[in-house]
Amino acid sequence: MIPLAGDRRDAGGVVQEGDSVRGTARVKRGFAHMLKGGVVMDVTNAEQARIAEEAGAVSVMVLDKLPSDVRKAGGVARTAGVGAVREIMESVTIPVMAKCRIGHVYEAQVLAETDVDMIDESEVLTPADEARHIWKWDFTTPFVNGARSLPEALRRIEEGASMIRTKGEPGTGNVAEAITHIKKLNDGLRLARAIYDSEDRQEMMRLAREYRVSFDIIEKTARLGRLPVVNFAAGGIATPADAAYLMSLGCDGIFVGSGIFKSEDAANRARAVVLATTFWDQPDRVREAQEMIDERMSMPGLDAASMELRMQERGAAS
Amino acid sequence: MQGDVEENLGAARQALAEMNMSGEAVRVNTPSAVSAVDAIIIPGGESTTIGRLSMAGDTLAALRERLNSGMPALGICAGLILLSSQVYDRRMGATGQPLLGVLDVRLERNSFGRQRRSFEMDIDMEPLGITGFRGVFIRAPSVTAVSPEVEVLASVDGRIVAVRRGGIVGTSFHPEMSGNAALHRNLVDAARR
């Protein structure tokens, strides 16, 4: 287990029952550990969820609309309906996650009471509070949050996130942003590690202040040389090769949003992305996975210049 | 292939160090890697996924052959499911996933409920001489029936959570999350004998 940096004694989500205890950082972060090396797929209905499970997804993420449709529809994007979430939970045996708006404590409570396995406080939906994310320590259900850099990731972990996904730009089918952000995060980790090795505590303190995080979490993270929670890549992943490349950059697993169910070969593509994620370090298996898809059926995608809405910037300043 | 692989490699290295033994902990995901090891850990992950991935290669067949000829193993959570002979889900019934069948036990998936019901507590495994072991249960399965040759090592609220047959041990909980390498030492010890 990755050591429990940033754990809190006053976490409201911890429930003691006789000799057993629920909602501890270990139990919540442990859930994310079970997903490592796997693919979490965005779905909007039970049929898609079953296709994802059949393909070998480790979990499904429930949304009202896929990110590319959220982008097209405009307006306010909210959490999915309880009925839709429940129907999906009853259709598959793999864990089910669902998204709530950034800072929307009561959407999160509704999802926790619906008994989803993990809540994604997500920039794909319209933020309810740009300045304050949810205080996630008060939930027994674990949370995953997006981050574009080390400071953003550590701020989310200090609020109680049990898992991080490095943000790309959702709903674009363009992996460029995800690659940029995982590299930026890795740069941040290398810098922190170098400061740790130099034993310059004052410099570490300066970094903590610059990042707006505690000395404790930056120091523990620097010593580990990685995030203290499981970190997946997300945003714009459309092909097996996209997934394998992100795994090679040190990600623990992959979230695929629109890339699968906005393609025209969803079932094959889902299986192929799973294979490439598992066997990312075996070039022949990645080639085999890439052969399972037809590029003419990939989602068309968007380049950065044509994007009016940059979801990745939502909540990033807080 | 998927799940808590790194953490189990770490726990195995910790066990070797604590026993002052030289040895290597390596990742196994090909048939040739299966034939090269003295003992194996099948880590927790998502059992449906692991089942699907196992079907994609000959690794499962190679593994079954080694285990049937006496190689020690530690199967954790989804790994325990893979070792078992029968598995069902309370809602979905029989799951139809591929199994190794080397532990003749019947498993119930997600036996304690969804993630909100996941928990940790101290576990005693008297037959192994291990007590006060921090058991971390993540959407854990439990054993609902065992054949006579399978020994029960521990139970929680009347549900069986650890079993053994010869050198093969299976647990519902995650020893790699406990910081205690006792079960990994037990595996190294079985491999040495």
Briefly, what is this?
With 318 residues, chain A is an alpha/beta fold.
Q: What would you say the CATH architecture of chain A is?
A: Alpha-Beta Barrel
Gap between N and C termini of chain A, in Å? 29 Å
Approximate helicity band of chain A = 40-55%
CATH class of chain A: Alpha Beta
Indicate the CATH architecture of chain B. Answer: 3-Layer(aba) Sandwich
Low-confidence stretches of chain A: none
| Percent helix of chain B | 25-40%
Largest interface: A-B, 42 and 43 residues
Task: Record keyword descriptors for this entry.
heterodimer, A: 318 residues, alpha/beta, TIM Barrel, 8-stranded parallel beta barrel, two-stranded antiparallel sheet, 13 helices, 10 strands, 42% helix, globular, B: 193 residues, Rossmann fold, 5-stranded mixed sheet, 6 helices
Description:
The complex is a heterodimer of chains A (318) and B (193). Chain A is an alpha/beta fold. Chain A has one domain (35-301, 309-313): Aldolase class I (TIM Barrel, Alpha-Beta Barrel). Chain A has helices spanning 25-33, 46-55, 67-73, 82-91, 105-114, 150-158, 176-198, 201-211, 215-224, 240-248, 258-261, 266-278, 283-291; strands at 15-17, 20-22, 39-43, 59-62, 96-101, 118-122, 143-147, 163-166, 230-233, 253-256. In chain A, the strands form two sheets. Chain A has an eight-stranded parallel beta barrel with strand order 3-4-5-6-7-8-9-10, surrounded by eight helices. A two-stranded antiparallel sheet of chain A has the order 1-2. In chain A, helix 2 packs parallel to helix 4, helix 7 crosses helix 9 and helix 8 (201-211) crosses helix 9 (215-224). The longest helix of chain A has 23 residues, at 176-198. The model of chain A has no long low-confidence stretch (mean pLDDT 93). By secondary structure, chain B is of the alpha/beta class. Chain B has six helices and eleven strands. Chain B has helices at 5-18, 31-35, 47-55, 59-68, 78-83, 182-192, and strands spanning 40-42, 73-76, 84-89, 93-94, 103-109, 119-125, 130-137, 142-146, 151-156, 159-165, 168-171. In chain B, strands 1-2-11-10-9 form a five-stranded mixed sheet. Chain B has a four-stranded mixed sheet with strand order 4-3-5-8. A two-stranded antiparallel sheet of chain B has the order 6-7. The relative contact order of chain B is 0.19. The chains are: A alpha/beta (318), B alpha/beta (193). The A-B interface holds A 1-2, 17, 19-24, 26-27, 30-31, 33-38, 53-59, 90, 93-95, 112, 115-118, 140-142, 274-275, 278-279 and B 1-7, 29, 44-46, 48-49, 52-53, 56, 77-78, 89, 91-92, 95, 109-110, 114-122, 136-139, 156, 174, 176-179.
